[in-house]
Amino acid sequence: MQKILIISTKNLSSNHFDGAQKRIFDIAKSLSKKNKVDFVCIGKNLSKKKTNLDFLNKLIIYKTSFFMKIYNVIISILKFQPMQNGYFFSKDICHFVSENKQEYDIIIFHLIRSAQYLPDNFNGKTILEMTDLISFNYAQIIKELSFLNPLKYVYIFEKLLLQKYEKKISNSFDKTIFASEKELTLAKEFIEKSKICVIGNCFKSKKKIFKHNSNSNKILFVGNIGYLPNKLACYNFSKKILPQINKTYPKIEFNIVGKINTFDKFILSCFSNVKVHGPVKKIDNMIKKSICGISNLKVATGLQNKIFMYMSYGLPVIASKDSVPKNLIKNKKNILIYSRQDDLIKCISELINKKKLANLISRNSYKIVKNKLTAKKVYNKYI
Asked: What number of helices (H) and strands (E) belong to the chain?
C-alpha cells in the first residue's frame, strides 16, 4: 500500500456538471481502494461523511480571500506566469507540501495550475494530471469570440502565458496524464514521449431508463454553464437552432441543466421554449422525457463528460464532431455526429421519427459505459 497526496484547486465532488471535478473524484476514489489517499485543496469546508468522501485518509481544505486572489493574479502577471496560477495560489498549500512531502510515495497535481506546488528534493513519484491542454482550449475559444468582446484579449494574453508555462513545467514531472488523444498529440511537441500518456474518464452506468416515446418533447444539455464553451453552445442552440426545429416541431423544448449564474439564467430563459433548471440532484425524470442529449460544442478539449452521462442512462446522443472521443464512438451505431448546424437539425428529426435508430443508439451507447468505462478498467493503469 502506497501513500498518495492529491493537490487540487477544486473541491472534491462527484458532480456530473463539472468534468474536471468529477474526474479527480473518480481517480481519488479508485486509488483509495489499494492506497492511502490524502486530498489537499482550496475551497469550502466539507464533511467527509456528508459528501461521501470517507474513502479518503485525510481531507485538508484551505481558504483564500478574494482580495488575496486578485493580489496574487497581479503578482503572477508581473512574473509573466499564468493568471490562474495567481488566482489559485495558497501559501498554506506550499507550506503543507514542503513540511509533509517525504511522507508520500506519490504526489498527484490536478490541472496545470497546481503544478506550481511541485516541491524541490522530493524522493517519490510526481504525476501531473493535466487532463486538458488548457492553452489549446483557449486558442479555440479565442476563435469563437468577437473582436468587440474584451474577454477575447484576456484569453489571448492568458493563452500566451500558458503556452510558455506548459512547455517549461511539464517535463519536471515523472508523468503527465491527459484525458484524450487530441491533447496527447499536441503535447508530444514539448513533453518527452516517455513522460506522457492518456487515461480516459470512467462512468458508472445507471438503470437504463430511456424509451423512445413519440410524446417526448425535450432536448437535454447538461454541463457547467460557467464554462465558456458550454455557455456559447447553449446560446447558439437557443438563438439559432431551436427556432428552426420549432418550425416543424413547435412543442420541442431545450432543457439546460447545470451550474449557471443568475444573469445567463435570465437571458436564456427569455428564449422561446428554453427551460433553464440549474443544478439538479436527480436527472432521471428529465431523461425519461427527453428525445436526446446534445453536446453541440464548437470548442471541445479533453473528454466531454456530458456524452458519457447521457449514455449511462441509454439516452441517445447527438454531438459535434470535435466533441466526441473517436476511439469509442461510431456514427449512427452508438451516437449521431454532425459537422454543420443543418446536420444537427436533421439528426434531431431522425431521432424523433425513427424509433429503430433511436433504440439502436440507446442500446449500443449504454453498452459502452457498462462494459468499457468502469472505474476498474479505466483507472487500474493509473499508478
From this structure: 15, 13
Distance CA 172, CA 69 (A): 26
User: Residue 99 is part of a domain; what is its CATH number?
Assistant: 3.40.50.2000
Kindly state whether residue 383 falls inside one of the protein's structural domains: no
Between CA 52 and CA 44 the distance in angstroms is: 15
> Where does the pLDDT of residue 208 fall: very low under 50, low under 70, confident under 90, or very high at 90 and above?
low
Is residue 207 domain-resident? Answer: no
Whether residues 162 and 222 share a domain: the answer is no
Residue 209 within a domain: no
For residues 133 and 233, state if they share a domain: no
- Reference 53, options 29, 20, 24; nearest CA is 29
Please give the Cα distance from 82 to 105 (Å, whole number): 29
In degrees rounded to 5, what are phi and psi of residue 54? Answer: -70, -5
242 and 115 share one domain: no
| Structure confidence by residue, pLDDT tens digits, 245-270 | 999 999 999 999 998 999 999 999 99
Domain range for residue 226? 218-372
Q: What is the pTM of this model?
A: 0.86
The beta strands (E) that lie in the chain are given as: 3-8, 36-42, 58-62, 106-110, 125-131, 175-178, 196-198, 218-222, 253-257, 274-278, 290-295, 317-320, 336-338
Q: CB of 361 within 8 A of CB of 316? A: yes
Q: pLDDT tens-digit profile of 32-65?
A: 999 999 999 998 765 555 567 889 999 999 999 9
User: DSSP letter at 114?
Assistant: G
Inter-CA distances, 167 with 86, 157, 186, Å: 18, 16, 11
Give 383: exposed, middle or buried? Use CB within 10 Å, 0-12, 13-18, 19+. Answer: middle
